[in-house]
Amino acid sequence: MNQEEPIREFFSEQQFFKTLKTAIATSKRTLMEDGLLLICWGLAFSIGFLWNYYQSVVLVPSRIRDIMYIFKPVIGIALIAFTIYFVFFKGKNIKTYTAISTRFVWIGIIIAHNLVIMVTKSVMNEINFELLHPLQMVLIGFALFVTGGIYRYYILSYSGLLMWIAALICAKLDLNTQFLIRGIVDFICFVVPGILMYMEVKTKRDV
User: Fold this and answer.
1) Cys bridge to 148: 29, 107, 157, 187, which one at CB 3.0-4.6 A?
2) Residue 26: what pLDDT?
3) Would you give the DSSP letter of residue 94?
4) Which helix (H) or strand (E) covers residue 14, if one does?
5) Mind giving me the DSSP string for 140-200?
6) 146 pLDDT exceeds 80?
7) pLDDT tens for residues 66-90?
8) CB burial readout 111-121, b (16+ within 10 A) else e
């Protein structure tokens, strides 16, 4: 037997465990980072929709409305920049099947939502927001459901089911009530799973 073969096998095993350890660490980091993204986007959506509902039932001073009118797009731009940083620049040399698959799911949902707006406007000659909100919730529910399956983190899949149920409820309600339900459901379906994902990985790292 060649004496070099045991050495090669040893280094081969070492390389395997090193690669496995790197893959696990990368997967955990991706889970933590996506948890942060869920928290940030969930809070932005939730606060935005709850504010829309609040405006509909309470007489808000024009100065505050003007501030919020400016504040909302600024937050949107900041979140998009934050998301681009996480997706394309932070740890860009390390890619996993899970991360890539998840990105494609959400990019596809964004494209599909915009196509739905274009199609409904073309057919109805106007944008019916009472119809679009439930449809958007159906698409988001699908993305959450699939993401939970990809990560094997089934709390996200349950969040998708909850979003679908909320979409069915919202389809029978006026736009302002939809804002209220959407704000609550976005917090439950995005922020809560995001916190659990982030804390789970952080706890394992600290142990």
Assistant:
1) 157
2) 43
3) -
4) helix 4-57
5) HHHHHHHHHHHHT-HHHHHHHHHHHHHHHHHTTS-HHHHHHHHHHHHIIIIIHHHHHHHHH
6) yes
7) 777 787 788 888 888 887 777 676 6
8) eebeebbeebe
For residue 139, pLDDT over 60 is answered with yes
- Of 146, 125, 140, which Cα lies nearest the Cα of 182? 140
Burial class of residue 156, CB neighbours in 10 A (0-12, 13-18, 19+): buried
Question: Cα(100)–Cα(20) distance, rounded to whole angstroms?
Answer: 18
Structure tokens at 66: 């003007």
Q: How long a stretch of residues is the chain?
A: 207
Q: What is the pLDDT of residue 18?
A: 46
Rounded Cα distance between 103 and 107, Å, is 6
Question: What pLDDT sits at residue 20?
Answer: 36
In a 13 Å sphere around the CA of 49, the CA atoms on its Cβ side amount to 21
Task: Tell me the per-residue pLDDT of 29-63, one tens digit each, with 9 for 90 and over.
Answer: 555 667 788 898 899 999 989 988 988 887 777 77
Residue the block writes with tokens 């029978």: 172
Q: Which two tokens stand for residue 99?
A: 């991360």
The encoded tokens of residue 81 equal: 């920049």
CA distance 62 to 30: 42
